[in-house]
Amino acid sequence: MSPRTPQQFREIREEKKTLIMDVALEHFSNVGFHATTINHIARHAGISKGLMYNYFSSKEELLAAILDRSLTEVYNDLDADSDGHLSEDEFEHFIRKVFRLLHEKKQFWKLIFRIILQPGVFEDMFGGGSDKLTVSGTPMKAFSETMMSMLIDYFKNRKKYPGEDYDPMMEMFMFLNTIKGFSMTYVLSDDLYNDDYHERILNEILKRYK
Amino acid sequence: MSPRTPQQFREIREEKKTLIMDVALEHFSNVGFHATTINHIARHAGISKGLMYNYFSSKEELLAAILDRSLTEVYNDLDADSDGHLSEDEFEHFIRKVFRLLHEKKQFWKLIFRIILQPGVFEDMFGGGSDKLTVSGTPMKAFSETMMSMLIDYFKNRKKYPGEDYDPMMEMFMFLNTIKGFSMTYVLSDDLYNDDYHERILNEILKRYK
Amino acid sequence: MSPRTPQQFREIREEKKTLIMDVALEHFSNVGFHATTINHIARHAGISKGLMYNYFSSKEELLAAILDRSLTEVYNDLDADSDGHLSEDEFEHFIRKVFRLLHEKKQFWKLIFRIILQPGVFEDMFGGGSDKLTVSGTPMKAFSETMMSMLIDYFKNRKKYPGEDYDPMMEMFMFLNTIKGFSMTYVLSDDLYNDDYHERILNEILKRYK
Amino acid sequence: MSPRTPQQFREIREEKKTLIMDVALEHFSNVGFHATTINHIARHAGISKGLMYNYFSSKEELLAAILDRSLTEVYNDLDADSDGHLSEDEFEHFIRKVFRLLHEKKQFWKLIFRIILQPGVFEDMFGGGSDKLTVSGTPMKAFSETMMSMLIDYFKNRKKYPGEDYDPMMEMFMFLNTIKGFSMTYVLSDDLYNDDYHERILNEILKRYK
DNA sequence: GATGAATGAGTATTCATTCAT
DNA sequence: CATGAATGAATACTCATTCAT
User: Fold this and answer.
1) Distance between CA C196 and CA B165 in Å, rounded?
2) Residue D12 Cβ < 7 Å to strand E
3) In Å, what is the separation between the CA of C40 and the C1' of E12?
4) Which DSSP string do the residues of A41-86 spell out, in sequence order?
5) pLDDT tens, B129-150?
6) Is the CB of residue C151 less than 8 Å from the CB of residue C74?
7) Contacts (Cβ under 8 Å, ≥6 apart) of C84
8) Are A133 and A75 in contact (CB under 8 A)?
9) What is the pLDDT of residues D132-160, one digit of tens each?
10) Is B206 exposed, middle or buried (0-12, 13-18, 19+ CB in 10 A)?
11) Is B141:B71 a contact under the CB 8 Å cutoff?
12) C135 in helix, strand or coil?
């Protein structure tokens, strides 16, 4: 009965936004960005279409918000001690995290892969150096470069495989693409891999790149 | 005055079909399947919308035709001696072919990756074990399995890295996903990699998996 | 400023639905189902094409809605005391009703005849025993059979024309087809018959079948 | 090998025209005028689309030709002695003919009913006093009026039912509409009536109107 | 006479977005 | 804050008809 405080309003707003984003992520991942209609999202979120636009100014902005939120979660989870340097333990930790997140947030990763490969969505939105794809505000690109630097640095200092023509940058490149290839295979396979297999692959990657 | 012969008609049809498929592949790859309109295709092919439907009964059938044609080209190109066995030389040959095709048919590979990841296109068309995705009649799946068998066989018999817990199947899996990850990176990067870099990566993969 | 109540929304919906159905009936009757375009209906109803689809999911559903509504009106009008039995007075009443409805809802009857005879509309929609053609939920067929039973019953018990080979079912059949033939003639004639002639025919039928 | 004579050419033309009309009647009757495509007709007649237009200048002209041909057959069949007068025997003969034709040319009658009731076909083509609907060149209307005159004349002179308020014109009207109603019922019913029932109805009509 | 490639105007339907209430 | 009616531009697809050969 008593009027809501500004604080309460803010909380309600946040809850609604979260609800909408959750529903939208679910649909975007499974049905695709284009095939998901605002009507569907609104209906499944139990709100009106108009209200959706009260929170997000467009369908694309909604997508951007989802990506930002999810990438932030990932980033926060990955950036363990934020000292910019990876010890061997941290590297293993990093890989384990990737595998865990792949499993736990399969939905989100599916979306990411789809968005990245879907022109007219990713490129129109995030291409051309527009830096709309952010991680808590930081452009994705910067995060990406930081990660690559850390990995090059790691591979420079690790002891294993110090062959003559050993190239840390190439090692990083192979490592990332192996991860990328596996991630895609994993994310797109519907229950193809059981947990045991997932674990074995993780160990194989550790064996090769740790 | 004299009417065209059936042969002439057949030639006209073939030429126009090829033209349409070329234009469509270009657009599907760059703009995406959904974002590509029949109007666009027709306009760029210099024909009317109606004519498109004289050759392909729907937009999806057009896509299927393009995929079949392209996969046939790829398959014919990859299936060197068709003895089902890979020697070390053949393995190198195989990898070199993959890299060459990646370069020569970048457009097509871009399309393939995008289609695979775009729900409501690949899945609706080719999902559910419908085996509509064929290579000159042979279902894609069969080709895929043959390739995997050959690779497992190869890794079983090769001499390098015969570590204690060496698992040919895992080796095959790592190899394929590395290729997959790299392919994706390569195909989606607009001129990121020059020919020299492409070559260096090829050699790196040879070094690790040959 | 205050939002519309659900009640208001419902009223708006009902009004618009009625408007669209009225306009569509008019056009379907005069121009035919196929020849009537959604554009025409929308333009004449003063609304946008899109709105039509907000109320009816397809052109065919619009037709079904019109038929259901109209048949319900007719049925409610015809089913006088619903005791399933026709006295002589009721029989006369029945015929008079048919003639009156023919006159008052000429538009609708024209549509009915046209739909029934137009393959690919009636048959696709209502054929195959799908019972989509309903009168307030009751399948048309049931109503039709009830009516025929009542008429046979009536002709069994009436006193006139009790010739030797008198067959109530045949009498019913002759009666219905006479009505049918006349209805078709009446409905398709643009102002051919004035009210006086209409009345004379009614009396003639009464003379023969009452 | 020898060049065809003009006579042979004419015969070939006639045969092709007949073939096309037969195929078209079949499709128009079963699928409807709008739903029947020129492509269908051409393919089923084993000719090209272009050739169709060599014989008939439009789809509507093809329909007009079919109707003219069929009505001529009916007319020739009905007009027994062409003295413009019906004796009792001739009247019975007439009714029997109607019933026989209904049975033998059910396909055609189905088309006729559908065409008559399908606006945008009949009306656009034949409405507005354009008299495009002909019987061997004679406008349909004239034939129709002749028939009605003959019937009125017949009912004037017949002996049965000479009640006080006997009106030959009304009798004719009742007779024609009974025939019309029954024809519609018969033509639209798929095998509802067996030959025996058909015969019984014929006798009933004779009993009432002869 | 005969062919079928080519056209283009027309059709139903979808959906992100706006806005009065 | 909240609603859902209303819009309109866009899209895939159809088909009678033309015409070069």
Assistant:
1) 104
2) yes
3) 12
4) HHHHHTS-HHHHHHH-SSHHHHHHHHHHHHHHHHHHHH-SS-SS--
5) 445 677 776 777 777 788 888 8
6) no
7) C146, C149, C150
8) no
9) 677 887 777 777 888 888 899 999 988 77
10) middle
11) no
12) strand
Residues 6+ apart with CB under 8 A from B201: A170, A173, B99, B182, B193
pLDDT digits (tens, 9 = 90+) for D47-66: 999 999 999 999 999 999 99
The dihedral over CA atoms of D14, D16, D18, D20, expressed in degrees to the nearest 10, equals: -150
- Overall average pLDDT of the B141-162 stretch: 82
Query: Helices B168-188 and B140-157, interaxial angle, to 10°?
Result: 120
Residue A60 confidence (pLDDT) above 60: yes
Distance, CA of B102 to CA of B112 (rounded, Å): 11
Please judge whether B201 and A170 are an interchain contact, meaning their C-beta atoms are less than 8 angstroms apart. yes
Residues contacting C143, CB < 8 A, separation 6+: C75, C135
Angle at B205 between CA B202 and CA B207, to 5 degrees: 110
Cβ atoms of C45 and C23 closer than 8 Å:
yes
The pLDDT assigned to C113 comes to 78
Whether C32 sits inside 8 A of D118 (CB atoms) is yes
For A64-101, the pLDDT digits (tens) are: 999 889 888 877 766 566 677 888 888 898 899 889 98
Residue D120 gets the label, from left (phi > 0), alpha (psi -120 to 50) or beta, of left
Is the CB of residue D184 less than 8 Å away from at least one CB of chain C? yes
pTM of the model: 0.84
Tokens of A105: 């947030």
Segment C107-160, tens digit of pLDDT = 888 888 777 666 555 554 544 444 567 777 777 777 778 888 888 999 998 877
Task: List the single residue in A34, A114, A176 with the smallest CB-CB distance to B117.
Answer: A114
What's the residue count for chain B?
A: 210
Look at B93-97, C81-85, D61-65 and tell me which has the smallest mean pLDDT: C81-85
**CA–CA distance from D105 to each of A141, B128, C78, D24 (Å)?**
78, 49, 36, 15
